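Support reply, case 0932

Customer input (verbatim):
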Amino acid sequence: MTASISLRHTPFHSESTAADVLAGVDLTSRRAIVTGAASGIGLETARALAAAGAEVTLAVRDPDTGEAARAGIVESTGNDRVLVGEVDLADPVSIARFVRLWDGPLHMLVNNAGVMAGTAQPELRTRMGWELQFATNHLGHFALTTGLHWALTAVDGARVVSVSSDAHRRAPVDFDDIHFERREYEPWAAYGQSKTANVLFAVDGSRRWADGGITVNALHPGGIQTNLQRHVSEDDMERARRAAGTKANWRTPEQGAATSVLLAASPLVDGVAGRYFEDCAEAAPNVPGTRTGVAAYALDPEAAARLWEVSVTTLR
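Our regenerated output:
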């Protein structure tokens, strides 16, 4: 994942939808899990995978909203192979239960769920004392993915998709104080480092699991107004966009899900691993002062390896 590697491009772009990307793709023999699939881009990711024939498990915190989402997907796609699984990504016990109940192989894992805290909220922590955004956005998905590693290795060419954000350009992972135990809490720095962690996970996950044929990639879905921003004011969003060097350019959830399903299921990216995509194409390195691309610190293999070890130790 360096500048010397040629960037992967596809015929799709920022206005493409998930349905566009998977047109003609047959997933009838594949199984997928999508976290945070009750609404927003997670819902549309799950819908597109189901429309292509996959068995899709909606991994959600609230089973009732999951069942409502399931019914809508079945109705719109005609695919009744849509399931609901309960998981709270901020709770290791809940994640362990989900993993224990999973049976059989897994072809696609889309780590889509996330939380975003606004400045109007107090600092939020899990019952273990971990900063909530890092705990949910990274540690929860790390525990889920590593817990399901056996299911991913049971198939040839399994794919893991890590939904990051251009907000990763807001902050690297502060290994000296990840959980804001000594420094002043700043919610956007916390969110930014959690999204950087999503990219670093793709870098080291692909390295560690290459022999098993598992690919791990990260992506920025674009700006989509979803439940993710339910605690965030428009003023907060504008300040965060300025800090990350990002402009407001809202997309539909169907467009936001396009890059997720590209990395999860499109033959156009077979074998691609450890990379960061935006607008259905691999992102170039960010140039300071510009509004696109991936930060160098998010691709750093040493930081990626360090984060993996820190994550293992934290969850032990």
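We compared this against your earlier run and they match. Two observations from our side: The domain at 18-315 is CATH 3.40.50.720 (Rossmann fold). Confidence is low (pLDDT under 50) at residues 229-233. Please reopen the case if you see a mismatch on your end.
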